[in-house]
Write a structure and sequence with these properties.
- The complex is a heterodimer of chains A (99) and B (482).
- With 99 residues, chain A is mostly helical.
- Chain A has a domain at 1-46: Histone, subunit A.
- In chain A, 38% of the residues lie in helices and 9% in strands.
- The longest helix of chain A is centred in the middle third of the chain and has 22 residues, at 24-45.
- With 482 residues, chain B is α+β, with helices and mostly antiparallel strands.
- Chain B has three domains: 4-292, no CATH class; 302-413, no CATH class; 422-478, Arc Repressor Mutant, subunit A, CATH 1.10.10.
- In chain B, 39% of the residues lie in helices and 20% in strands.
- In chain B, strand 7 (101-110) and strand 8 form a beta hairpin.
- The chains are: A mainly alpha (99), B alpha+beta (482).
- The A-B interface holds A 13, 16-17, 19, 56-57, 59, 61-76, 79-80, 87-97 and B 18-20, 24-28, 33-40, 43, 51-57, 76, 81, 83-85, 131-133, 137-138, 140-147, 265, 268-269, 272, 274, 277, 279, 281-285.
- Bound molecules: zinc ion.
- Zinc ion binds at residues 21, 24, 26, 38-39, 41-42, 151 of chain B.
Chain lengths: 99, 482
């Protein structure tokens, strides 16, 4: 078996960044799946890409811009209708700083 | 302890004066009802497609050219990931590896000497929503969010760590502010948050090429705060080092009430932003033709205008500097001079009288001034033709400011015309001489200062309306020869 590409603690770190709560079993499964994905990257790495510009976009477009014209927004009531905890004209969010 | 050198770099965020947001058509108008200017794009709903606002890119290029940056031909947007409730989509569209522009310079003046501060980069991004906490952030059990500001175009200008004192940092910020306001890309209002500034502060042994551990200072929302916060932070670090403490890399918030910086509770992984190219926004290719077209529309910048004011109008460096602190004020001065060709006199009136009523850099106030340049020129002409004295003109100026009327109407209505009628003045002079025989004796005895007293009495008797030159002439004729 080859050296694992990603450790359990790296999985925990990434999960925390993404605000995902994983069970111990999930973590191990994620580690295995991510390991597979990262191994595939090795396969891609075998390609000779010297002198090839990195691709950031799959569609060959540039300079898609719009003129600076205001357009109607979504009404406030519609926007707040889906909020789990609206407060008057605002969205309300739970305590921000962890204790 | 060895001499320590202060090293400061500034990150300035300027809200761009576009009418719509950076990536959607929502209005950027200030003061609308909370959450009334949002849409699926700026709320980050799945499937929404952002599209770049062309004016925002142009404003960025304008600024880049004004501070001598190289505009990158290729640039693109990136997602900066972080979780904080001020951004509904949990990432901010910004620029990372390929910013709009790089490698600029800004000349600043502090205490009469000038220095050049490097600008590392200038990039575009979107603003975030506004959080209102229930009480202090540390204890707030919940917060409310207004997303109207989320998605408003922001330009971030990052300096090199080239500033060596809080005063230099303040000068840099002031100079940069004047430029963005001149360019019309930002209103420069720090109190309302359209111009914001974060600072990186570190100390190192004088002459050392390496940088010390840097502390980031946030929440400085006025020029005064920037200078005070940085002065405090430098002192804090000097003291800490003197006591053998280590400076920790952290973010500190300026607390203007308690006049100190306070450590922000460290947010774990806060700097793990996992940037990657924004897949929804195709890259931009800025053609030289576009850049040159924008360059051709650049207004005369404050530094150039200051030099021209000093050279062309023969003003002192100090007056030229004050007159160019705001574009509107400089325009006001020049428009007045076009109608009344005595620049030094106009400068005096603008600096001493007009600026009593408004700050030099408040373009809105200057543009809305109740005395338009034409009326100021009209007032100055009334002094020249002897209709009113300089002293009376100051009162007329005040009335003009209060009422918005022009000088001739006020002078006519209030009967302020200067007494230049020799016959009438001669009678007053006779009365004054008769009433003050002792002073006349003094004068005859060689006390030349007595003349000033007599002039003053004539002015008093005419309620300040006598033509001073004529009064002097008449007194000279009437006083007994010594
Ligand atoms: Zn929107």
């Amino acid at each position: 078996m080859t050296q694992p590409k990603i450790s359990l603690s790296q999985v925990e770190h990434v999960a925390r960044l993404a605000r995902l709560e994983l069970s111990e079993a999930d973590k191990e499964r994620m580690r295995r799946e991510l390991d597979g994905i990262l191994s595939y990257i090795d396969t891609l790495r075998a390609l000779q890409t010297d002198g090839v510009e990195p691709t950031s976009h799959a569609v060959p477009l540039t300079n898609v811009m719009r003129e600076d014209e205001p357009r109607p927004s979504v009404p406030q009531t519609d926007m707040l209708a889906n909020a789990p905890d609206p407060s008057g004209e605002f969205f309300r969010v739970p305590r921000i700083i962890e204790e | 302890m060895n001499d320590l050198e202060t090293v400061i770099g500034l990150e300035v965020h300027a809200q761009l004066l576009t009418r719509s947001k950076m990536f959607c058509g929502c209005s950027t108008a200030f003061g609308a009802a909370p959450n009334s200017q949002t849409c699926p794009v700026c709320q980050g709903m799945p499937g929404a497609l952002p599209v770049i606002n062309r004016s925002a890119v142009e404003f960025g290029i304008r600024t880049a050219l004004a501070v001598g940056c190289r505009v990158n031909e290729h640039h693109r947007f990136a997602r900066k990931h972080y979780y904080y409730p001020d951004m509904p989509k949990n990432f901010q569209i910004s620029q990372y590896e390929e910013p709009l522009a790089e490698h600029g310079v800004l000349d600043i003046e502090v205490g009469g000497s000038s220095r050049t501060i490097g600008i590392q980069r200038l990039h575009l991004e979107e603003d975030v929503g506004k959080l209102i906490h229930e009480g202090p952030l540390e204890t707030a059990q919940s917060s409310t969010v207004d997303f109207n500001r989320a998605g408003v175009p922001l330009m971030e200008i990052v300096s090199r760590p080239d500033m060596r004192s809080p005063a230099e940092a303040a000068a840099y910020l002031r100079t940069l502010r004047t430029i963005v306001v001149y360019l019309g890309v930002c209103d420069g209002n720090m109190e309302e948050g359209s111009l914001r500034c974060d600072a990186n502060v570190s100390l190192r042994p004088a002459g050392s090429p390496e940088l010390g551990v840097k502390v980031e200072i946030k929440n400085m929302n006025s020029f005064r705060n920037v200078q005070h916060a940085l002065e405090y932070e430098v002192k804090r670090q000097v003291r800490a080092l003197a006591e053998g403490e280590k400076i920790v890399q952290e973010t500190r918030l300026w607390d203007p009430e308690r006049v100190r910086t306070v450590s922000m509770r460290s947010k774990e992984y806060a700097h793990d932003y996992r940037y990657f190219p924004e897949p929804d926004l195709p890259p931009l290719q800025v053609e030289a033709r576009w850049v040159e077209a924008i360059r051709a529309t650049l207004p005369e910048l404050p530094a150039a205008r200051r030099r021209r004011f000093a050279g062309g109008y023969g003003l002192s460096a100090y007056d030229a500097d004050r007159l160019t602190q705001g574009r509107a004020l400089a325009d006001y001065f020049e428009t007045t001079v076009r109608e009344y060709d005595k620049p030094k006199i106009v400068a005096n009136w603008v600096l001493n009288e007009l600026l009593r009523e408004m700050p030099a850099d408040d373009d809105r106030a200057v543009a809305a001034c109740p005395i338009p340049p034409r009326n100021l020129a009209g007032l100055l002409r009334l002094i020249d033709d002897g209709t009113i004295s300089g002293k009376m003109a100051k009162d007329v100026f005040e009335t003009m400011y209060r009422t918005g009327q022009d000088a001739p109407s006020i002078v006519a209505r209030e009967g302020l015309t200067q007494v230049a009628d020799a016959g009438e003045l001669r009678r007053v002079v006779d009365q004054v001489l008769a009433a003050h025989p002792k002073v006349v004796e003094d004068w005859r005895g060689g006390k030349k200062a007595a003349l000033g007293f007599l002039v003053g009495q004539v002015m008093k008797a005419t309620l300040g309306r006598a033509n001073p030159a004529l009064v002097n002439q008449l007194l000279g004729e009437k006083l007994p020869k010594g």
